[in-house]
Amino acid sequence: MSDIHTVTELPAGLAIYESGASLGNLSPHYGNSEKAKSRQEALYAAADCIPLVIYDSAHHVLALVHLGWTGTSYGLYAEVLKYMSHEYNTQPADCFYYLGPSIKEDSYRKESLALPLQTKEWEPYVSEKAGDYTIDLQGYVVDNLKRCGANPDSIRISCHDTGDPASDYLSPHRANNHNDPEGRNGLLVVMR
Fold it and tell me: What is the average pLDDT across 138-142?
């Protein structure tokens, strides 16, 4: 399971580097401080994985969560919400959620599935198309956020598909399958 790093005094971007997490494999990060009440910025790097932003406006708490299929399968989003509830009295129904640019079902194709994706829980989110499996990671995350108590009207999903060959976003999936350049995309989150 990923480590959870609480950011209280330093700008979140600096704390990410100081925590020892690499930009390619970020753990969840939170910001809640006096500085955050004026303005705090966090730069988050992801590629095809979902950059999930959770914002609790009642307690001015921000969480950035890196959700690939592994962290998603192990319920990282639920662990973050539990942590926020315990540490900050956050209520999932009072939060705003944003799923940033990431790979979409039509682009997320695999020849075979890892064991966690072969469970009954994932069945509605995995389909067979043209000899490959497609994975609806966003659908899985959204449905499970709702099960955790998120208000459906407070969930927003980016329309950008990082895996689409016509996309300007960087994508390891495209790099592996279409010889495109590999890298990470930045998501800047600002609290005022």
Answer: 97
Instruction: Enumerate residues 6+ apart whose C-beta is below 8 A from 161.
Output: 101, 102, 103, 104, 106, 107, 167, 169
Q: What is the pTM of this model?
A: 0.80
pLDDT per position as a tens digit, 85-113: 998 999 999 999 999 999 999 888 888 88
- CA 38 – CA 12 distance, rounded (Å): 14
Query: Which distant-in-sequence residues (6+ apart) come within 8 Å of 73 by Cβ?
Result: 116, 117, 122
Cβ neighbours, 10 Å, residue 60? 16
CATH number of the domain where residue 90 is located = 3.60.140.10
E strand or H helix at 97, and its extent? strand 95-99
| Residue 172, domain extent | 5-103+138-191
Residue with tokens 């955790």: 148
Q: What value, to the nearest 5°, has the Cα angle with vertex 33 and ends 5 and 24? A: 30
Q: Which two tokens stand for residue 106?
A: 């039509």
* CA–CA dist 63, 85 (Å, integer): 12
Which residue reads 């300007």 in tokens?
168
Torsion of CA 26, 29, 35, 37, to 10 degrees: 130
